Amino acid sequence: MAVRTYKPTSPGRRKSSVADFSGLTKKSPEKKLLQIKKRSGGRNNQGKITVRHRGGGVRRFYRLVDFARTKFDMPASVSAIEYDPNRSARIALIQYADGKKSYIIAPHELKIGDTILSSLGNAEVKIGNRLCLANIPTGITVHGIEMQPGRGAQVVRSAGQGAQLLAFEDGFAHLRLPSGEVRKFPGKCMATIGSVGNPDHQNIRWGKAGRMRYKGWRPSVRGKAMNPVDHPHGGGEGNQPIGLKGPKTPAGRPALGKITRSRKKASNKFIIKKKR
Fold first, then answer.
1. What is the pTM of this model?
2. Which helix (H) or strand (E) holds 213?
3. Closest CA to 151 of 117, 190, 105
4. What does the DSSP 8-state code read for residue 187?
5. pLDDT means per 10 residues in the chain (276 residues)?
6. How many Å separate Cα 88 from the centre of its chain?
7. Are 26 and 82 in contact (CB under 8 A)?
8. What are the extents of the domains in the chain?
9. Do the beta carbons of residue 199 and residue 160 sit within 8 Å?
10. Residue 103, exposed/middle/buried by CB under 10 A (0-12, 13-18, 19+)?
11. Rounded distance, CA 233 to CA 94, Å?
12. What is the 3-state secondary structure (H, E, C) of 163-176?
């Protein structure tokens, strides 16, 4: 799926590009697989802003994506490739042999008419099939990985991403994640063969602030442009350096590069190599 550009009829259009939706085969979603999406605008249950720069955006329905795919050993055929406004990847509409329909994250190079399978046993290693990590050969690229058996796809779900299976040892699979981190996953966890589709998503240039407002992102103001009462970087006559050892958040905590992962986190023992 390519990226499309337009003639530079305006400053915003000159710098922007859009995804080429030619790979989509169905415009309207399945009504039975839709759900109303509630939005908080970055506010907590007291109405206070806890996440800045959120709010607005176009209205959209949430597509009920089946991340677990628990209909084991029942073949399903791919009916359509659709656009999902809630994620960077495309979604595929599949229909099982019993007639039930569901959405899945569309793997790269998955085509209409393909038959896919989710199995706890030994099944064919091909794009779209979902298997246990213990049954997947080393060197294969996978996505939609469970962190605990039965949890459903939790890791590697965004457009163009994939994790490589490096080894299998002592009941754990060693995977290299897109961040460069090498991590151990239990062998009973499920994963889908192939990488996530729509790899050109990272090449899109949004071009203007208005397109970010469509996505629900409100404007952000530089801390240096604020007053000292509003931000640690604020104050000074004209353009001044921040005057601190390092950048800070509006609350005064270290920002941009500060490691926030707890050293006492229980899952640290599963990390073999930290991300680059």
1. 0.90
2. helix 209-214
3. 190
4. T
5. 89 91 92 95 95 95 96 96 96 96 96 95 93 96 96 96 96 96 96 96 94 95 94 92 93 90 94 88
6. 6
7. yes
8. 3-202
9. yes
10. buried
11. 52
12. EEEEEEECCEEEEE
